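Mods, move this if it's the wrong board.
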Amino acid sequence: MKSRTPITPENIAADLRYLTLLSHSFPTIADASTEIINLEAILNLPKGTEHFLTDIHGEYEAFRHVLKNGSGAIKRKVNEIFGHTLRESEKKELCTLIYYPKEKLERVKAAENDINDWYLITLNQLVKVCQNVSSKYTRSKVRKALPEEFSYIIQELLHESSVEPNKQAYFHVIISTIISTKRADDFIIAMCNLIQRLTIDSLHIVGDIYDRGPGAHIIMDILCNYHNFDIQWGNHDILWMGAAAGNEACMANVIRMSMRYGNLGTLEDGYGINLLPLATFAMETYGGDDPCTIFQPKLKYADNKYDDKTIRLISQMHKAICIIQFKLEAQIIDRRPDFGMADRKLLHRIDFERGVLVLDGNEYPLRDAHFPTVDPSDPYALTPEEQEIIRKLHHSFVRSEKLKKHMRCLFSYGGMYLVCNSNLLFHASVPLNPDGSLKAVTLNGSTYKGKALLDKVDQLIRTAYFDDDTTEEKNFALDYMWYLWCGKDAPPFDKSKMSTFERYFLDAPELCTETKGHYYTLRNEETVCNALLKEFGVTGPHSHIINGHVPVKAIKGEQPLRAGGKLLVIDGGFSKAYQPETGIAGYTLVYHSHGLELVQHEPFESAQQAIEEGRDIKSTAFVIEFNTQRMMVKDTDKGKELVTQIRDLEKLLYAYRNGVIKERK
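Not the wrong board. Structure tokens:
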């Protein structure tokens, strides 16, 4: 560690007010000294394991399993601890128990002849695993993680050895008494959950929890109760945040995406969004002879199996909300000409009599030319029925208590970017010019770029949701939430356009092209990545940018590691909708005290198969960086904070010992 500058009466005098406040927490020399000793000890513990995931897109079963197994970290621990002393099948059984203790116990008890013997063996094995995963933390931190009812017993088992002659009998009596008092099941569940919790110290979600998959609300429930996590908002998350804030164009997009992928569970079951008015309107408007063929949901990605009648209804609702979306978006485009989105208004370019789109002197036949709710003389006007639907949907979104809870979680633990332990995390892009310089973006009359741009976007998102006053800034921020979903200079999107209309209605691939911003190609250059890291104040030889957003097509030979190792793109297809493109089922990143590992996953079948057959996700780990010396807490951002705290406490000790501040009895 660097030598510290001497403490002098001058710097004590400069900090006297703060030190007086600090003395309330540490009122005596003994209290301050004890805390310094504690913090110095923590600095020399191994760095906790960080776990990075991105683009989960509602795939809650795979997400939950990856959390439970720590991207293979628990399996590695079990192999290290038991080596050849257990057969592979026994290690697999133990891992499955740790992942799914309650469900696995039910199966074991139904098949095991001597359950007490199984309890005895298993409890001893779990204690060994728990001792291993807890060894990099202070007793205080482990104690805070313990379940209250078993806290004392687990502490005794963790800190005593079964091979120490003086404590051998004591250790074994604790285990046998747990069994004899019929508490083995509850104790095993508690131990397994503790192992899961201690294996991963912190979790980073690099965007896109929502859309496509069936259970974003379940993922948010898990996160809201997770011990230590952060979120870097993705474009799909911001879309839902905009809907919850009251932006009706965002609401329409959220519903359209749910219809497109046949996943209504998050809307209806998760958040209680009332879709009945939309369903009734859609059946009346698009019933009869309208087949709504191009609006049939992509059911191969949905968990639910719908009958033909339900598929027909979803298709009708899909078309209804799609047309409403185009009208609502046009209102924002007209209201905000500075967004530069006029080219996204296409309904007025339709020749309704001939069923063609007239664009730039060319005519394109429409795949569906039935528009009963569009008035050719005023194509962006909502009908009275559409207005009533939006009014009811607006009420459902802004009044949903579950949605409010999850949004508060997203705001409390989320942001546009994060700098942590020499890694810069953001979901998609920092807009760049063709030469790699930071692109200046104008927002509400002021210009921002780089870090300042992402900071301003973060502030606007919070203003849109939390500001109760109807001000111009609030109104702009609310409209800007939609722009962040599909605007060409929006950091979470950064493409030339979102060709929603073209993809639905035209057989014209050339019009569907969405040209990515310069960041997506220039980020492959090490010099550009280094400049961006410097912009965000990230330094050091082991610094990285970590992104999601753009799926890495491993099936075509694309690699997640770019720019000489400076950039990691870890969207590998966690969502089932992307897996045909990527050929895999996602990447996760694990950053532990020995180095940085990228983990490539195969598709996860189901939790049921994992429990019944012991099927783990098949994963392959690649070492990105290996530390020749184990990384300690003192080498992390947290370590820097602790060093500052120690310095302040040393000043307090000086003040006590020199009579500047009196000890408090």
